[in-house]
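Sharing a chain and its predicted structure for anyone who wants a worked example. Both blocks are below, sequence first, tokens second.
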Amino acid sequence: MVAAVGWRVAVTTATTAMITGSTRLAGVVGWPISHSLSPRLQNCWIVAAQINAAYVPFAVPPDRFAAFVAGLRGGAVVGLNVTAPHKEPALALADRASPRALAAGAANLLVFDADGSLGADNTDGEGLLRAFAVQAPSFDPSAAPILILGAGGAARGAASALLEAGTPRIYLLNRNPERASALARALGPQVEVLSASPAKHLARSWGALINATPAGLEAASVLGLDLSALSPGAVVMDMVYRPLLTPLLIAAAQRGLQTVDGLEMLIGQARPSFTILFGIEPPPLDIRAVALGA
């Protein structure tokens, strides 16, 4: 906690002193945005790297997002991380997109070129896989099927990254079966939609359960999913990072299952974003401690 407070003071002082006409500006856009830890993480790396840059939050409502992005083209801002509810619209606004952004159907990163063109990328999938590597290092995404709760943009991003990593089959479980079916069709034959009560023998084959909804344990309960049906070797991940220990992760830990939290995914996607935005690798820093201090 002391280190986190120290970094908070350093960020406030150092980034203010560094802002000049040549400062490299970037940020994160969402609605709302006050909850985001991205400015804290990125500015701590900026200070540690001693670069002339700053990273700021932008609260932009959905009906103003396109105009906001258009106003930044060819300007001083070099790029934006994008969070809910703007990820899918961000991809649609881009002049070009990386394969992983196209596969995810959304962008969590927009890069503004000096000529006014706009590029889209998505580091969420990379962040998800890095989170598993850090907190469940024995997990092999190619070893077994995986269940994803949800069928929105977060679920699509996770599924596309896992398919790229070799996951043999992905099951979707969602309150809206029609939306899940549409996502399965978009992702291909390796993705299957489950009914509200998945069979116990099928649950034991899953290598991981990933929550891509705002309410993991509640959603699992409503959908008829019992964590006791999972294999003892299964990993449970929750993309939510506020609170850090969600009811789903607490329930999984009580059953002796490995868990992966949403904060580690946030950090995992922030690292490549920093490199793309500022042209260098994040400096060595216990960034998780900084985030926990927030």
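Comments welcome. The chain has two domains: 2-122+266-293, 125-260.
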